[in-house]
Amino acid sequence: MTTVAIVGCTHAGTFAATSILREHPDWSVHVFERGDTLSFLSCGIALWVGDHVSDPRKMFYSSPAELEKLGATMHMRTDVTDIDVAGKTLEFRSLETGDSQTLRFDKLVVTTGSRPVVPSIPGIESDRVQLCKNWDNAVQIKERAHGAKSVVVIGAGYIGAELAEQFSTIGVETTLIDAADRVLANNFDKLITDQVEERYRKHGVTLALGEKVTAFTDNADGTVTVTTTGGAYTAQFAVLAVGFLPNTDLVRGQVDTLANGAIITNEYMQASVPYVYAAGDSATVHYNPTGELDYIPLATNAVRQGALIGQNIDVPTRTYMGTQATSAVQLYDLSLAASGLTQAGADRRGMDVRSTELVEDYRPAFMLSTAPVTSILSWDPQTRLVKGAQFCSTADISGAANTVSVAIQAGFTIDMLANVDFLFQPNFDQPVYYVGAVAAKAVAEQGA
Ligand SMILES: Cc1cc2nc3c(=O)[nH]c(=O)nc-3n(C[C@H](O)[C@H](O)[C@H](O)COP(=O)(O)OP(=O)(O)OC[C@H]3O[C@@H](n4cnc5c(N)ncnc54)[C@H](O)[C@@H]3O)c2cc1C
After folding, report:
1. Pocket probe mutation, ligand 1, options 30, 142, 158, max atoms within 8 Å of Cβ
2. Same domain (yes/no): 201, 225
3. What is the CATH number of the domain that holds 417?
4. pLDDT at 282
5. Residue with the nearest Cα to atom 4 of ligand 1?
6. Does the entry feature the keyword Ribosomal protein, yes or no (predicted)?
7. Structure confidence at residue 294 (pLDDT)
């Protein structure tokens, strides 16, 4: 009988276990997870802080019992401490009893995910500096937020941006720090981030942008002071949200990785050693807008990659389609969504990409209400291929980012996107849907 070891069980591990057991119910599948829960939706942490979660127990979509029912042997509260890839064995230790054991496997699935980046800054080990990644962190943040007067959030990416927003809406005096000179600088271009910054200021959030943190100092009154290159900010606690690194030390040097440790896989999710598979935050993605391997830790990638492992673990069958890193966030009354490259992201990569901006109401002026949508479409001036798009409005624009995701995936040019058969109905859009309109503007700017 084939024995599979799955190491790590949040999204990639849960989807891998489920898909493997569906395809191979007779295989022996061992799942190792150091936590006592699995499948935690960390995307709900900020919403829980702001009291927008009906029941925190619903932030899990699977359980050890459910995987056991499918036939898995579950090793919860168990740390995998060593993996010998060539010898096909792993060591694991129960966090309850401290006992260690060895398992021989035929196939190994590495879904160990990622860990928060913790830069070496004096004082960062303070227990007033809080991480934001897993269920334990969620509980800590929720407890700290309750009745807190002030917080400093470090990192204005998606996670820090959402936390800062929710803290400010429950009356916590909030400072948001980032070394970049804009919020969400990796996700949106300036025309959009200016609107977000205006919302933060309106809600009393202090923005400390273009400032690098240089020290954390605990004060006798229980507060912590965060010193930056531009100032000093004191609060009851600080949340560090400055990115993630793949958790792959167990297999480092045994399979091919990127410099940051992300496991390189082929289109069947196989690592450089064919009986090793990887998915999610521990692995690379194929980023379609550049055609290159990249590291983009998102649940969207983890679930799709994890699910593919079941279909490929015996016979390579179904290929991974890659990602556009399509994503969205709600900040105050603004919905923001994006897919593929921003202009700033393309510039950072040295790519020749142009962007077209369009601001127009999403539906006709005769309706009793309407709202402007900011659309930015990025495209390659040589091939005319669509490379990315961003949308921002008080209306729901999330479907537009998904639409452009399909266009990038399918290799659409701006000309094709401008001529797609999009619906028109005044409740929903203008005679020309803003996705088609921004593409038509790009065609006009570039010339036929
Ligand atoms: C606050 C927050 C909000 C987010 N919001 C979104 C969002 O809205 N949309 C989106 O697409 N993505 C979002 N993400 C990203 C998303 O959560 C991650 O991409 C996703 O969790 C990756 O899943 P994974 O299973 O690959 O890895 P992880 O979630 O990192 O899970 C890895 C698991 O492996 C276990 N493990 C690691 N090493 C060992 C070992 N040696 N032994 C045993 N167990 C081990 C860990 O305990 C962990 O449970 C968010 C992330 C955070 C932190």
Report:
1. 158
2. yes
3. 3.30.390.30
4. 98
5. 43
6. no
7. 97
User: Average pLDDT, stretch 276-283?
Assistant: 98
Q: Is the same domain home to 235 and 248?
A: no
The residue annotated as part of the active site, out of 9, 11, 75, 392, is 11
Structure tokens at 281: 């935050």
**Closest to 359 in 3D by CA, of 373, 343, 377, 342:** 373
Annotated active-site residue 43? The verdict is: yes
Mutate to test the pocket of ligand 1, among 11, 134, 167 (most ligand atoms within 8 A of CB): 11
Whole-prediction pTM value?
0.96
Domain boundary among 311, 345, 361: 311
Ligand 1 neighbour 390 (Cβ under 6 A): no
Q: Ligand 1 pocket: which of 95, 281, 305, 331 to mutate (most atoms <8 Å of CB)?
A: 281
Please indicate, yes or no, if residue 124 is contained in any of the structural domains.
Answer: no
Q: Would you put residue 39 in left (φ > 0), alpha (ψ -120 to 50) or beta?
A: left
Q: Kindly tell me if the per-residue pLDDT of 448 is higher than 90.
A: no
Q: Is 11 a catalytic residue?
A: yes
Does residue 109 fall inside a structural domain?
Answer: yes
In percent, the amount of the chain with pLDDT more than 90 equals: 99
Distance 435 CA to ligand 1 centre (A): 32
Are the C-beta atoms of 46 and 159 separated by less than 8 Å? yes
pLDDT per position as a tens digit, 45-69: 999 999 999 999 999 999 999 999 9
> Based on the structure, what is the number of domains in the chain?
3
Residue type, position 70, single letter: L
If you measure from the C-alpha of residue 36 to the centroid of ligand 1, how many angstroms do you get, rounded to a whole number?
14
What is the residue range of 379's domain? 327-447
- β pairing state of 206-209 and 100-104: unpaired
- Check pocket membership of 155 for ligand 1, CB cut-off 6 A: no
